[in-house]
Write a structure and sequence with these properties.
Strand content: 5-15%
Number of strands: 4
Distance between the termini: 136 Å
CATH architecture of the largest domain: Orthogonal Bundle
Shape: globular
CATH class of the largest domain: Mainly Alpha
Oligomer: single chain
Helix content: 40-55%
Radius of gyration: 36 Å
Largest sheet: 2 strands, antiparallel
Structural class: mainly alpha
Length: 349
């Protein structure tokens, strides 16, 4: 039996529920109006998916994470390891010494970190190494010394430093003159690969002899000067490059050359390059040009021998300007565009 009091209570509870329902409905309507036209990215994505797949269940899609597409295996530098044993110029590198290994590994990963530049350096070796290899072999010097070219100039013949070092072997003016590399307003022979390699061969021979036939000390001397290295060794009472405390650049110099040998002697292993990927040596002919007028433009010479100014300057980086004054000059031009008279002119004194 329902009493009057019970009916009153029921009516009050019903009224409360009706009021709450109206408030919640109003709040939902207000929120919808405020957010209308401002769908979240997730809602837009769901809408797009719904258009693509109208049969799919919206509730199921709410718990599906977007698929991540990977283009091949991710590249990690740590996948490359420095070998336990390395030799350079016939000498064993003391990688069992903790600080030696760390110094060489630092340079090793520095090269690999900039993969784009390392690929270009590797490609350049196809052009700049062959002449240096022949000259080193003829002089009886280790082939490994060619890797100095990568550290000195990145195999760029026209390279020039703040210290006024020039050319692929980066001779400073005084050392260049010492080994008869002429430099004037028209021409800088330090930029000629063959001529500067000949000078480097002589200098390295001298440095090795000066430093008790130690190639590591000879290379350090090439970087810092033989007298400076001699004084450092004497002051520190040592005769070992790997124990020497010296200028930061010299401390890095030899490890960097050794790291360069490890990487660029095996470009297929470290850079995914084969021999056919390297830049091919250019086939050129040497001609003799006799400038009889007060000066002649290189553009004119380039046009005469079937090439263009940029290529002529890249083949002859020793020429500083675009004009040649009166005189005789030996100039390289592409073999395929050189007329038959090039062969005759090459023999002209």
């Amino acid at each position: 039996m329902v009493t009057r009091g019970t009916q009153v209570i029921s009516s009050m509870i019903g009224a409360i529920f009706i009021t709450l329902f109206i408030q919640v409905s109003a709040l939902a309507t207000s929120t919808t109006e405020e957010t209308k036209g401002h769908k979240s990215e997730a809602e837009n994505e769901l809408l797009l998916l719904d258009q693509l797949d109208p049969q799919s269940d919206l509730d199921d899609r709410l718990v599906i994470l977007p698929e991540i597409k990977r283009e091949g295996e991710r590249f990690f530098l740590s996948s490359f390891k420095l070998p336990d044993k390395i030799t350079f110029a016939g000498l064993s590198v003391p990688l069992d010494n903790w600080q030696v290994r760390e110094r060489i590994e630092y340079e090793f990963y520095q090269f690999l970190e900039d993969q784009g530049e390392s690929i270009i350096l590797a490609k350049r070796t196809g052009r700049c190494f062959p002449p240096a290899e022949r000259q080193l072999a003829d002089a009886g010097l280790p082939d490994d010394l060619k890797y100095m070219l990568l550290v000195e100039s990145k195999c760029i013949s026209a390279a020039y430093s703040k210290a006024k070092a020039s050319g692929p072997w980066q001779f400073i003016p005084s050392t260049g003159r010492r080994y008869r590399l002429k430099s004037d307003a028209v021409r800088d022979e330090r930029r000629n690969l063959e001529m500067s390699t000949e000078a480097a061969v002589k200098y390295l021979k001298y440095l090795k002899q000066y430093q008790n036939n130690d190639w590591f000390l000879a290379m350090a001397s090439y970087n810092a000067g033989e007298e400076r290295i001699r004084k450092l060794l004497k002051a520190q009472k040592i005769d070992d490059y790997w124990k020497m405390h010296g200028p930061r650049e010299t401390m890095r110099y030899v490890p960097r050359i050794i790291a360069a040998k490890e990487i660029y002697s095996q470009p297929e292993k470290y850079l995914g390059l084969t021999k056919k990927d390297l830049y091919m040596p250019l086939e050129t002919e040497t001609i003799t040009v006799n400038v009889k007028e007060s000066q002649r433009a290189l553009t004119s010479i380039a046009e005469e021998f079937g090439t263009y100014l940029l290529e002529l300057k890249m083949l002859n980086p020793e020429f500083k300007k675009d004009m040649l004054p009166r005189g005789n000059y030996q100039i390289r031009v592409p073999r395929q565009t050189c007329p038959s008279r090039c062969f005759k002119q090459e023999k002209t004194p």
